[in-house]
Specification:
This protein has 171 residues and is mostly helical. The chain is 64% helix and 2% strand. The protein has one domain (2-165). The longest helix is centred in the C-terminal third of the chain and has 32 residues, at 139-170.
Length: 171
């Protein structure tokens, strides 16, 4: 468990400029997202993402459709955010949260803000520190902080408690 916590504390979400700058096919997108998120957050029995999930997110209007069956940097950013948030929120809630954020910021900036806040939230939850300067945040900043904090809190409970319960039940 300590190794898992170490890995979580070192977790780095790829920033906008670190996402692929060439368009990827669906299989490549699935592999890319699995590589970044698979080892950290998701119950091992569950898939982080599948082709069917991606197609459903497009059909539901949660993210833009691919162009000529290829996914660009923005769509990959959407999918990374969706994969994390679906651990805590419904797809319809995620759609609303993304729409609110995109209304205020362009996709790259919104995505980078999400990544930075997620990493800070995870580190603060696992090291039992308070999130800095909440009283100085705008309403949008405070909303984002709480969105990512909910995921960090769920992750903490899973790693510290539920995984122990699963291991005990398997014995």
């Amino acid at each position: 468990m300590e190794e898992q916590i170490e890995a979580i504390l070192k977790f780095h979400m790829p920033r906008w400029n670190e996402l692929p700058d060439i368009d990827l096919y669906l299989d490549q997108v699935v592999n890319y997202i699995e590589r970044y998120l698979g080892a950290y957050f998701i119950n091992k029995e569950d898939k982080v993402i599948t082709k069917t999930m991606i197609n459903n997110y497009v059909k539901q209007g949660v993210m833009p459709a691919p162009e000529k069956k290829k996914y660009n940097r923005a769509q990959i950013a959407y999918l990374l955010v969706i994969c994390i948030l679906k651990q805590v929120y419904s797809i319809s809630d995620i759609k609303k949260l993304i729409a609110l954020t995109i209304k205020n910021y362009e996709v790259g900036k919104a995505y980078n803000r999400f990544c930075a806040n997620l990493e800070v939230s995870i580190r603060h939850v696992f090291t039992k520190k308070e999130f800095p300067k909440c009283d100085q945040m705008t309403e949008e900043q405070y909303l984002l902080k709480n969105v990512v904090q909910s995921f960090a809190n769920k992750l903490y409970v899973e790693v510290k408690f539920l995984n122990k319960e699963r291991i005990s039940a398997d014995k």
